Amino acid sequence: MEILGFSFSLVELIVVGILFLAFVYQLYFYFRYMNGVLRLRNKTRKNKVSFQQEQPPVSVIICAKDESENLKKFLPFVLNQEYPEFEVIVINDGSTDDTENLLNDLCVEYPNLRTTFVPVGANNVSTKKLGLTLGVKASKYDLLLFTDADCMPEDKFWIARMARNFSRETEFVLGYGAYLHKKGFLNRLITFDTLYIALQYLGMAAAHKPYMGVGRNLAYRKETFYAQKGFASFLHLSSGDDDLMVNKASTPWNTRIEIAPDSVTWSEPNTTFKGWLYQKGRHLSVSGYYKSSSKFRLAIEPVMRAVFYVALILSFVFGNVITMIAAAMLYLIRFIVQLSIINSSAKHFGERRYFFSIPFFDIYLPLLNFYILAFGRGTKGKAVRWK
Questions:
Q1: In what order do the strands lie in the sheet with 218-221?
Q2: Residues 6 or more apart whose Cβ sits within 8 Å of residue 97
Q3: Which of 23, 36, 321, 384 is 20 to 30 A from 67 via CA?
Q4: What does the pLDDT look like over 329-355, one tens digit per residue?
């Protein structure tokens, strides 16, 4: 077949056609969802986003298991927030280290710190869900803000930033939970994966399609917790206290995101590949319980990404010079879009930037996720009745 004087085989035209369709979807995904943080940032700068002027009281809830060192290091950053009225509830999840003594000492110094505990040896698939439930029941205020024991807010306005989003119809506020920067390839992999996932769930929520949040930086109303009967519908799972709650109860209009740089929380990252792999396995193990619409939306992007790369390779294997140039141009355009959106968002959040590592992560991480979903072990637990 000849087009503009150039001869193309049927195979070449089919491959280029598939490549172009995958390319179009990839651009749609990046501009529609991954660009959501930058789009909201620009609206905020133009005063097109409204925030609550009132500062209602907030209960910050942290579940800690053998985290005495992290609590000693990070909890003061939470307790010293600049906010009119808030309490911090730390649940001692059956710790066997010095957590109890540390919390007792801190309670003397900080009158807004309260504690409760999960008994050692509690027979549950997820004692964290039990601990969080105890924390919610112990809380005095309607607005609940969750983080982890190894998390540190960016600065003293973290609570204020998250709380300002609770308009009358808002039930969930999703924030960004980043990982501290360390040396080495593993840390770059972890921070890129975390940033990418955050841009995805924050961007989808900004596009009125929320599907998850992370317990390192998540807020919702106490009445929402009780309306969903807490974690009752997924007690049989070892994970999911954060993303399944959001996936189950969020709607296009009851969820907002907070993207101010001083709303970020920073956590200690895994230092071993095995530990990080297990952490990812726990998260991915509950993704099968997402709503069908969420699962479809999350599955189509990596599928189209795989189609794009396969078609790109085939374009060079079976194509002529014109086909190869066209395929290279499509890849280059996509790469520039990735560089722009990912690195501009990273700069906004105070994250490190990525350049030539993006193509590697772009291929490796979906393959790793597929491997975990297909062959992962040890992430599912049996249902255990609460006592």
A1: 113-118, 86-93, 58-64, 143-148, 218-221, 172-174, 255-257
A2: 66, 67, 68
A3: 384
A4: 999 999 999 999 999 999 999 999 999
Torsion angle of C-alpha atoms 285, 290, 296, 298, degrees rounded to 10:
-60
For 73, what's the count of Cα atoms within 13 Å in the CB-facing half-sphere?
Answer: 12
User: Where is 91: in which H helix or E strand?
Assistant: strand 86-93
3-state secondary structure (DSSP) of residue 179 = strand
- pLDDT tens per residue, range 93-129: 989 999 999 999 999 999 999 999 988 766 666 789 9
Q: Which CATH class is domain 49-284?
A: alpha beta
Element (H, E) at 7: strand 6-7
Token code pair at residue 355:
């350049």
Alpha helices in the chain (DSSP H): 10-29, 36-45, 68-79, 99-109, 127-138, 158-163, 185-206, 222-227, 243-249, 273-284, 292-318, 321-349, 357-375
Helix (H, G, I), strand (E, B) or coil at 184: coil
Give the whole-angstrom CA distance, residue 61 versus residue 137: 11
| CB proximity list for 243: less than 8 A, separation 6 or greater | 211, 212, 213, 214, 283, 286, 287, 290
Over residues 151-161, mean pLDDT:
97
From-to residues of CATH 3.90.550.10 in the chain? 49-284
Distance CA 232, CA 133 (A): 10
Question: DSSP readout, 58-73?
Answer: EEEEEEESS-HHHHHH
Q: Of how many residues is the chain composed?
A: 387
**Tokens in use for 198?**
């955050």
Instruction: Count Cβ atoms below 10 Å from residue 257 Cβ, excluding itself.
Output: 23
- Sign (positive or negative) of CA dihedral 334, 335, 340, 345: positive
Residue 257 vs residues 44, 116, 253: alpha-carbon distances, Å: 12, 30, 11
CA distance 52 to 160: 10
